[in-house]
Specification:
By secondary structure, this protein is mainly α. Helices cover 75% and strands 1% of the residues. The chain has a single domain, classed as Up-down Bundle (Sodium/glucose cotransporter), CATH 1.20.1730.
Length: 537
Amino acid sequence: MTFAATSSAGDHRALIISLFLAFVFATLGITVWASRQTKDATDFYAGGRSFSGFQNGLAISGDYMSAASFLGIAGLIALSGYDGFLYSIGFLVAWLVALLLVAEPLRNSGRFTMADVLAFRMRQRPVRTAAGISTIVVSIVYLIAQMVGAASLVVLLLDVSGDGAKRWVIGLVGALMILYVTVGGMKGTTWVQIIKAVLLIVGTLLVTILVLFKFDWNISSMLGSAADASGQGQKFLEPGLKYGKDATTQLDFISLGIALVLGTAGLPHILVRFYTVPTARAARTSVLWAIGIIGSFYLMTIALGFGAAALVGSDEIKKSSASGNTAAPLLAEEVGGGAGSTGGAILLAVISAVAFATILAVVAGLTLASSSSFAHDLYANVIRKGKATEKEEVAAARLSAVAIGAVAIVLSMFADKLNTAALVALAFAVAASANLPTILYSLFWKRFNTAGALCSIYGGLVVSVGLVVFSPVGSGRPTSLVPGTDFHWFPLENPGIISIPAGFFLGWLGTMLSRDRASEAKYAELEVRSLTGVGAH
């Protein structure tokens, strides 16, 4: 690890580190407080179902607005213009699917995890095993994106270079997320997410105001300056710069859009948030608040991305991060007074601390979702066959958080060159391929059975993950997971256009070919519970 002293970040490391430590110690204090309120499994998994719709809406926003949103999308807009903003649109529109199709039925039908709904009228052990594996895979892919974002951020802030520095950062973030989950459970994680959501909105609003002030509140002037600085001219503001070069990139755009819009309704760490409120009405209120907060944030990414393109420039952004992950912090430094100024260094430190808070909050939520699924679905219901005590189940969740965190740390060290938003889009594709078909079939198709559930989950997982491995994301490019070789044959970066229909088709096919008959009485009970809340936990 080597240190340089060429930027204001390097000259103000003490301030940056102080802000980081202040957030870390404050949230650790909240986590310790929450641990004293955690008495049983309901407290650990669902925060005692004690949060209001507004509080949960803030927490959902904090869970959802990840490093991909703050760092990745700003970078994609700064480097790709209009096509980069499509990520913002997809991430926001996805919430309409979650609101209309899954929020209330899941809250009414489940208890702690997605598998509670899927296994309600199926054979418990095989379905819970499949759902647990799917939850862990999706969460780890998402975790990798957050840790890559953390590494890019801290390397910029502390002005360090070398792969060793990034690995230290990834290890630190992993250790903190494990600590948050094992000590605080859902209550501690929720309050960390609420605080982070407030900080992120305030920080983003501040930078947006300063950017617009630079252009005399004239958005057209900002967009024109961004187009001029990009070297692409008017093409920078039109569709096609990233996804319009040929038929393959256009198809990739459609695939990306499908994955983003359908993925949210299958993300395990979002689904478990519906269980932290007391009623289905509160779950619906949570989603409405989340849509308002998240929508406001994604509107501000216009100023972050195009402002970075206009004021920082794509060349400077690429020097710091080839994938654009540092565009937002560099923009904060510029509007604060520029490199070398005290104002620039302070705003850079503040915004970067907010970004770091963003990453910690999201990774805590992801780790909690995956460890809860392991403990509740795999350990308690599959391995122990429902005979585990609540104390044993919570202990298993804490131990699995350590194991899952360790796996995510190791894998993240091989993905440091990928854009965080692109990585998150892959997680969305896997979730929409494996989880969403099974959820919708379970809730709305009377004939759906265990064989269909297993085919849709395992089939969606294998197809989506397999296509990612053999895509340009896996190999063949300098920014691939394995950059030194080329074994890719699938041309698209995002597999959603193939894997999501495959998940639905395999679920249908498995059901139709199986002799297993689903219980009509159980389906009727699930239907009444999901629609009315009668019998809900």
